[in-house]
């Protein structure tokens, strides 16, 4: 039960607070976000583990969650004035009329929620468990969490519609639900496929962590590119970076010696990226400088403590 509760609250803490979307002074919103973020992460993890599947299923499930959250739930994918920002203008260069959104918007949504909102929290909490393949919820707990997720997501959707007055078209919702269903099916299919081992030894966990930090930081560095750089070129660059990262991790995880510390290093490197990203993002969200600075320092300390404890536990289980 403790791991389930930890994941329930860690997911929104990473997805909203560490990112800088929500200031730490707004503690009450944690209970508003937890049913969707935490409920979604728990459901994904439980379904994967209960059906004997691993990360090959969790990642596509997380991508499905990403499209569900920013699509049918809060409709950011299609709302050109979401959050009071002219998102339509920001993403105009890669806009696809047939989808009602842009390629870069989809890339941002998939990156943020697949990696940080779902996969990183799951990997970190599982690092504290002796057997990461065991379910955490019982026969009653699973449907309860599912109901909490649906209710929390519906409430957030209603709040968005009430505050913005924006509702996506039937066509937009249709392709989003179809994509979500396709990713879920893909997860179930990939999760059952056996992956052959390869010759070679996995790199040290420190190398994996640095690589994860570098790759995830590179994704966010596009924010600092000159305006003259074509956003279409940036979108292509994202595809190449993701393809290279997936290929590299797939190669590493099939190597001898790959284990819990490597998985944790992968998640930890990405988590550290959000520490520096959160500082800049908080400024963009007009959060007071003092609050943003103190939050960044506090989160940096919390991340360091959390990862240190997780690595100690992972190393102890390895002995």
From TrEMBL:
Source taxon at top rank: Bacteria
Q: Does the keyword ATP-binding apply?
A: no
Q: Which UniProt keywords apply?
A: Membrane, Transmembrane, Transmembrane helix
Q: Which residue windows are transmembrane per the record?
A: 25-44, 51-68, 109-128, 140-161, 173-190, 202-220, 232-252, 264-280, 292-311
Name of the molecule in the record:
DUF998 domain-containing protein
């Amino acid at each position: 039960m403790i791991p389930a509760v930890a994941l329930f609250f860690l997911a929104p803490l990473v997805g909203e607070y560490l990112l800088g979307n929500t200031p730490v002074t707004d503690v009450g919103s944690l209970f508003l976000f937890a049913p969707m973020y935490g409920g979604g992460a728990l459901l994904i993890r439980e379904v994967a583990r209960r059906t004997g599947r691993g990360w090959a299923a969790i990642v596509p499930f997380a991508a499905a969650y990403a499209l569900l959250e920013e699509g049918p739930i809060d409709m950011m994918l299609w709302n050109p004035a979401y959050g009071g920002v002219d998102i339509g203008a920001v993403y105009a260069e890669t806009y696809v009329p047939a989808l009602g959104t842009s390629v870069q918007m989809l890339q941002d949504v998939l990156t943020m929620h697949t990696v940080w909102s779902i996969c990183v929290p799951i990997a970190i909490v599982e690092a504290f468990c002796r057997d990461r393949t065991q379910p955490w919820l019982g026969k009653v707990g699973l449907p309860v969490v599912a109901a909490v997720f649906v209710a929390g997501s519906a409430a957030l959707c209603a709040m968005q519609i009430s505050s913005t007055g924006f509702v996506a078209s039937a066509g937009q919702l249709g392709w989003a639900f179809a994509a979500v269903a396709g990713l879920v099916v893909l997860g179930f299919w990939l999760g059952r496929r056996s992956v052959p081992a390869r010759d070679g030894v996995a790199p040290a966990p420190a190398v994996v962590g640095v690589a994860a930090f570098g790759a995830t930081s590179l994704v966010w560095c596009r924010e600092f590119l000159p305006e003259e750089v074509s956003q279409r070129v940036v979108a292509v660059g994202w595809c190449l970076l993701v393809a290279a990262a997936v290929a590299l991790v797939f190669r590493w995880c099939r190597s001898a010696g790959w284990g819990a510390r490597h998985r944790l290093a992968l998640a930890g490197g990405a988590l550290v990226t959000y520490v520096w990203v959160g500082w800049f993002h908080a400024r963009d969200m007009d959060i007071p400088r003092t609050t943003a600075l103190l939050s960044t320092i506090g989160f940096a300390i919390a991340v360091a403590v959390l990862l240190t404890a997780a690595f100690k536990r992972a190393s102890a289980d390895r002995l």
